[in-house]
Structures are given as structure tokens and as C-alpha cells.
Amino acid sequence: MLARAVEWLFRAGTVVALTGAGVSAESGVPTFRGAEGLWRSFRPEELATPGAFARDPKLVWEWYDWRRSLIARSSPNAGHYALVDMERRFSDFTLLTQNVDGLHDRAGSRRIVRLHGDIWTLRCTGCGREEHNEQVPLDELPPRCLCGALFRPGVVWFGEPLPHKALAAAFAAAERADVFLVLGTSSVVYPAAALPRVALERGARVVEINLEPTELSSLAHLSLRGKTGELLPELLRQAA
Ligand code: OAD
């Protein structure tokens, strides 16, 4: 099975990878869905929506502050590093991520399209100023901008549009991909979940790596069962 993906990668000019929470799972960062997923213990509408923030900004920030602390204690894993290798290996490689944890940056990936924002960015709800902030825990919850208004996490919440530039770059990449890798994502959250489908329509070979079958598995040319931290390095080793 892996051999087919290796062959497609060998011949590919343009490679695109879309990552989801599963890629960071081996770093100890919880995923959203599944048996141990965050949405088992927390309700998205109470924590990850504009309405939730308007109702109780402190509660929302406590949750994000907790996630920031957890991520700060974790390190990139072999899957993140394999994607850094891919960026070096393929002249036309694009990394699209739904993850907000910054572990791709910490591993060393440079060209990253962040579809759902960045948990290390604070965005002012008043003046719109953005600030990179890696302090954990934050001094004051909810944090405030110099202008006096509340900061919010620089992430995309349910019901919000994705950043326009990132989304346009992601669809452009999907349209020209020869090989499109779908890594550690349940493929249920749109518009990100539309990207591999666009790639399929445009003739790309779509390869999924996931621990479990997903909504995409039956559509993908190849759906590999396993951990991205194990299968991605193996794929690269064989494609060398
Ligand atoms: P999910 O939690 O929905 O899915 C994680 C996927 O990773 C599941 O399909 C798991 O089977 C798989 N998985 C877990 N560990 C793995 C491993 N080591 N190797 C390979 N696969 C593994 O996460 P996402 O698909 O990223 O959005 O979720 C999409 C969006 O929903 C998130 O960006 C977030 C969430 O609500 C927002 O907050 C806007």
C-alpha cells in the first residue's frame, strides 16, 4: 500500500499536505473528536464561538490558557519533522494546517498556511491589533490590549469565516496538487474538508493517513491506517 504512495510522490511536482489535530496527538496535544477528544468533555458552543466569548470571556480564556500551557509543555513529533523534510525535498510543497498549536513552526516548517489561526496570537476586539504572545499562564484573564479592550484568541471559532488569504492560498494549492496528503484530520469541518475533494476533482492522487476510517477514506485513492508520526517518516524514507 505504502509503495503506491511512494511511487506517486516520486513522480510528483506539486505536493500539498493538509494536517489536523491527529498530527499533534503524538506530542500529547488532545484532538477534538474521538474517544479522548476535547469535544467529549467540553461543549464547542460554550467555548469556541463568538457568542460564548461575548457571554463569558473569562471562561473562554481559561480554556485557551489551559490549552496554551499544555501545548507549551509539548514538543513536535516525528510527523511534524517529516513535513519539514518534505518542504526541503519538494520544490513546490505547501503545508496547509487546521492546527493552531504552532508545532509545525517549532519543528521548522516555514511555508505554512494557517487555516484556523494561531493560539499564540492575541487579537484586540477593539482596535484589531494583533500581538504574538507565548506567555503561559497569562497574567490576567481575560487579557486586555493597551487600548483597554479585551484581547481574544487569534483563532477561528465556529460560525466565523476563515482568513481570506489563507483560504485562497489553500484552494489554489489544492487545485494544482499532483499528490495531496490528508493527515490526522477527521475531515468533517468545512471548508478545510473541501480541499482534498477539490484536489480529487482536479486529478490529484489523494492519500490519507489516519488511525481510523473517516468521511474521506472511501474517496481517497489510498487510505493508510496508522500514526502520522510513524507512517510519514517511513513514506519519506522509502521515497528517498
Ligand atoms: P479531529 O479531532 O476532528 O480529528 C483528529 C483525527 O486525527 C481523527 O480522525 C483521529 O482518528 C486522527 N488521529 C488521532 N491520532 C492520530 C495519529 N497519531 N496519527 C494519525 N491520525 C490520528 O481534529 P481535526 O480534524 O483537526 O476547528 O478537527 C478539525 C477542526 O475541528 C479543528 O481545527 C477545530 C475543531 O473544532 C476549530 O476550532 C475551528
Summarize the structure.
The chain folds into 2 domains: 2-28 and 74-116 and 161-239, Rossmann fold, CATH 3.40.50.1220; 35-73 and 123-155, SIR2/SIRT2 'Small Domain', CATH 3.30.1600.10. It is 39% helix and 19% strand.
Blueprint (SSEs and pairs):
Layout: H1 2-11, E1 14-19, H2 22-25, H3 38-41, H4 44-47, H5 50-55, H6 57-72, H7 78-89, E2 92-97, H8 103-107, E3 112-114, E4 117-124, E5 130-132, E6 151-155, H9 164-176, E7 179-183, H10 194-201, E8 205-210, E9 222-225, H11 228-239
Parallel strand pairs: 1-2, 1-7, 2-3, 7-8, 8-9
Antiparallel strand pairs: 4-5, 4-6
Helix pairs in contact: 1-11, 7-11, 9-10
Bound molecules: 2'-O-acetyl adenosine-5-diphosphoribose.
Brief descriptors of the model:
elongated, three-stranded antiparallel beta sheet, six-stranded parallel beta sheet, 2 domains, 240 residues, single chain, alpha/beta, Rossmann fold, binds 2'-O-acetyl adenosine-5-diphosphoribose, SIR2/SIRT2 'Small Domain', 11 helices, 39% helix
